[in-house]
Specification:
alpha/beta; four-stranded parallel β-sheet; 12 helices; globular
Length: about 300
């Protein structure tokens, strides 16, 4: 895949050079745990959209990369952030400079973990900040200080997880692609941008369900704020079930690992552990609890795949 040069990366048309697979495939799988309750399980394979801008990362990043219009892209994430990896890959493919602001100054000067090493190999300049600063990253004064310290004062800023109004509008197509195919559209949630857009695109076709992978936090309010920023108000019928975080972000207990490996063996689908495994486990539990009427088609959005 040939990269697009910086001079070419000027607007939405430049992104077609990345050749995304859209709409992403929708596959029905036969699973006895669903079948015996009269529920059809559909897998929305957003993990197949692009080999490096995987899943919802494409849907959220593409409109932001277009808006960057060739400028340096600066964004935020933890030491194992898939969002940072996707942004770095996009920068390499499009010839854009990228800066990753990493949570935790204690990580500076230490050997990079595989995730951050991949970012660096793709040309992302890493800027480590104390956690106290990272928590205040949305404060205008703090953001200005971070931009100056990172020598990226003219950068186009993408928030943590890529969730902003542009990203939410980009995720509307996900809901539109599922309209008429499913009664329930379910997705794992980190920052909530994908659910905000999915629910808007799926409005009138069914209900959208979010499974948060972080423990606690004001996610409901953040999703409402994202929809207001993107559309001027709430959109779609959506809800969260906060029982399936498995102890918190990046926590993968042994039982969840066993569940994910079993799902892979049953259906031949690679299961990403941080988000997708929690979503699928939640759906199996909800079906057994009778959460969906018999005859329903439930679509699980596969937002990513395991990284090596």
């Amino acid at each position: 895949m040939a990269p697009v040069t910086s001079s070419d990366a000027s607007g939405p048309d430049a992104l077609t050079g990345l050749r995304p697979r859209l709409p992403s495939p929708l596959r029905e799988v036969v699973d006895g745990r669903f079948e015996r309750h009269g529920i059809r399980l559909l897998l929305k394979r957003d993990d197949l959209i692009h080999p490096e801008l995987v899943g919802n990362k494409w849907r959220k990043l593409a409109p932001n990369l277009a808006a960057a219009d060739g400028r340096t892209v600066l964004t935020f994430g933890g030491a194992y952030s898939n969002h940072l990896r996707a942004t770095a890959a996009a920068g390499r493919l499009l010839g854009l400079r990228t800066v990753g602001v990493v949570r935790g100054e204690e990580l500076a000067g230490r050997p990079l973990n595989p995730s951050l090493a991949r970012c660096a190999a793709d040309g992302m300049r890493l800027h480590f900040v104390p956690r106290s600063v990272y928590r205040r990253r949305t404060d205008p004064d703090t953001l200005g200080e971070v931009l100056r310290a990172a020598e990226a004062g003219d950068a186009y800023v993408v928030p943590e997880g890529g969730s902003n109004a542009a990203a939410v509008r980009g995720c509307q197509d996900l809901g539109r692609e599922l309209a008429g195919e499913a009664d329930v559209a379910a997705v794992a949630c980190g920052t909530g941008g994908t659910l905000a857009g999915l629910a808007a695109g799926f409005a009138g076709a069914g209900r959208s369900l979010g499974i948060p992978v972080l423990r606690g936090g004001p996610l409901t309010g953040e999703i409402r704020a994202l929809q207001t920023e993107a559309f001027g108000g709430p959109r779609g019928d959506w809800s969260l079930d906060e029982r399936f975080h498995a102890g918190g972000f990046a926590r993968v207990p042994a039982a969840l690992e066993v569940f994910a490996a079993d799902f892979e063996q049953r259906h031949g689908v690679p299961v990403e552990r941080i988000y997708v495994a929690k979503l699928l486990h939640a759906l199996v539990t909800l079906v057994e609890e009778g959460a969906f009427p018999r005859g329903s088609a439930v679509a699980a959005v596969i937002t990513g795949r395991p990284f090596p």
